[in-house]
Amino acid sequence: MKESTGKMTGARALIECLYREGVDTIFGYPGGVLLPIYDALYDSDIRHVLVRHEQAAAHAAEGYARATGKTGVCIATSGPGATNLVTGIANAYMDSIPMVAFTGQVPSSLIGNDAFQEANITGITMPITKHNYLVQDAKELPRIIKEAFHIASTGRPGPVLVDLPKDITTEEIEFYYPDKVELRGYNPTYRGNIQQIKKAAAEISKSENPVIYAGGGVISSNAAGELKELAEKIQAPVTTTLTGMGGFPGDHSLFIGMPGMHGSKYANYAIQESDLILAVGVRFDDRVTGKLKSFATNAKIIHIDIDPAEISKNIKVDIPIVGDAKWILANLLKYAEKSQSEEWLKKIEYWKKAYPLHYIEPATGDGIKPQYIIEQIKEACEDAIIVTEVGQHQMWAAQYFRYKEPRTFISSGGLGTMGYGFPASIGAKLGKPDKVVFDISGDGSFQMNSQELATVVQENVPVIIAIFNNGYLGMVRQWQELFFDRRYSSTCIQDSVDFVKLAEAYGALGLRATKRDEVRPAIEEAIASGRPTVIDFVVECEENVSPMVPAGAAINEILDLERKE
Amino acid sequence: MRHTLSVLVENKHGVLTRVAGMFSRRGYNIDSLTVGVTEDPTISRMTIVVRGDDEVLEQVTKQLNKLIDVIRVTDLKSEETVERELALFKVSSDVSNRSEIMQIADIFRARIIDVAPRSMIIEVTGDESKIDAIEQLLRPFGIREMVRTGKVALRRGAKGVSS
């Protein structure tokens, strides 16, 4: 325990704790019970970004965390402010992103009385937080905040919520900030078992058809360097999940794209014919595995993960190695030797050539294919950070950009949250101000949090929102086309809004491209402007995401859906 | 298959909700759950009887361990464990059958803890099958109310689950 730094209010103590945790930016929205905290923030050096809806505060904090690797912080008032955070917290939980959410709460004496703007937010968020706290004694505030940041950022990362009754924030306390966290029920394992690592190495050297299947755990443990070294050493192809994009260079000859429902055919074929899967920081999600019983039936499975509960949760694992991916990969490198993959790599090269990701350009006319926009953004600004919403545009962004670095692709994976991308891009841009940040969006998703245009203009956060405007809730429309006889029930949103005027109404730059040759100039103009920009790309309206594994099918039963003119 | 889990948790508000909530949202069934403080007043012990095969048990154990307030989870094997449950039965009785009920209680080493003109309360401790058995025998007299605590269990011998 350090020396006291004197008496202060709980609100002031909260700010002091944030300083100690190295927090420089928080995202939030004030309210009645937060008045003492916002008063303390007024004098602080912490940048508070005022969003226009609390959901955006949570997503922005997450975008900040994903871009920087630091813990994201958001704050909202009691009752509706707190419940508006819920989607963002659930999103961070599903994708294991470190985040601390502070919520105001009615004064302790009123808790449980159905007071004005009271909601039991610790109860509500119990299933979607790694842990949460209701502060009951102001003296405990520094310890709880220390623990919250520790829990959020260590082990398998995740969101932690701290609920702050108003009286706690006004009470005077003697401030001590603990040096250490003592949690007897929480001791994540970082070092993998060496015997297991040796066993894995032995299997790798025997293997003829190895595949590395890498996910978000590679990003969160900063293990991309080790992963690349290992893949090259053992000569195994690498597939990365949506949340693992950038964990392995997209232009590497061993890269085989994304697995699963909208993955590449060759990634899916490789998994299905493999004799060994080295799974790193993944959770065998149903969008990846397809029909579980038919998934990689001939493969031995080595699973590296920091969360023991992920081992054999969906797929029976032969060699589990629990611990930090970076540590384990570094040690596996010491023992692993080249696999017997010469023939296998030739086969994979053949698949890559025979079944490439592709789309068909319009034979006539100058319509815009959505995949073309992704390729043009990549050509214009290869080292941009790409954030996405959820839907077809998200899949095209995952398929066609070929991310080279970790933390350059930010997307809602597990929860699939429309409206995530724009606020997350605000966080990403504030965390990485030197990077060009695009929010790849759909006309549906964008309207779920378009109010944040006010935030980016007021706070001068020059993100570029690229709306793939097809006049449909495209992914649902695609499923209706394929499985519901083209009965487009409630998915047509054509001509519902003029996005250029909307941008201008908020004081942002609004651009529109309706023809193929207008795409690149619009992208260049947006980048050069240095202003928050909305580009309305009017794209082919019934383009499908291809290839596709139908729900419930095995992942090698993958269909081509490209639309011909 | 039924398993008895001994779960040491922080003795704090909300911990029972966290544990019960985890069971319900992941679709595991609890047969019984008891909770009380241990020899260390900062720690409570939950004894949870859960139904499922080995894979379910493995997931339950891992998911319990993920909760920050859970300190230790032990699967108690019945052969190395003593298990007890307590039950109270309020049985209709009058002067005509009182002694018959007392004889049954005697056989089960149960105790009569309340006698009234038209009822008696019987306290019995034992494993589940013993309590089921006395319930069968008391039923013909008319069980007005009964309450069972659910199982508590400790490992036999000097070694505990926390050591």
Q: Which strand order spans the largest sheet of chain A, edge to edge or round the barrel? A: 3-2-4-5-7-6
Name the structural class of chain B: alpha+beta
Q: Mean pLDDT of chain B, rounded to whole units? A: 94
The CATH topology of the largest domain in chain B turns out to be: Alpha-Beta Plaits
Global geometry of chain B: elongated
Features:
heterodimer; A: 565 residues; alpha/beta; Rossmann fold; 3 domains; six-stranded parallel beta sheet; 23 helices; B: 163 residues; alpha+beta; Alpha-Beta Plaits; five-stranded antiparallel beta sheet; four-stranded antiparallel beta sheet; 4 helices; 9 strands
Structure description:
The complex is a heterodimer of chains A (565) and B (163). Chain A is of the alpha/beta class and 565 residues long. Chain A contains 23 helices and 19 strands. In chain A, β11, α13 and β12 form a beta-alpha-beta unit. In chain A, α1 (10-20) packs parallel to α7 (141-153). Chain A is globular. The mean pLDDT of chain A is 96. Chain B has 2 domains: 2-76, Alpha-Beta Plaits; 82-152, ACT-like. Chain A, domain 2 (Alpha-Beta Plaits, 2-Layer Sandwich), CATH 3.30.70.1150. In chain B, 28% of the residues lie in helices and 42% in strands. Chain B has 4 helices and 9 strands, in the order βαββαββαββαββ. Chain B has helices spanning 15-25, 54-66, 98-107, 128-138; strands at 2-10, 30-37, 43-51, 70-76, 81-92, 111-116, 119-126, 143-148, 152-155. The radius of gyration of chain B is 19 Å and the shape is elongated. In chain B, 25% of the residues are buried. The mean pLDDT of chain B is 94. The A-B interface holds A 122-123, 126-127, 130-131, 134, 151, 183-186, 307-309, 311-313 and B 9-10, 14, 17-18, 21, 25, 55, 58-59, 62-63, 65-71.
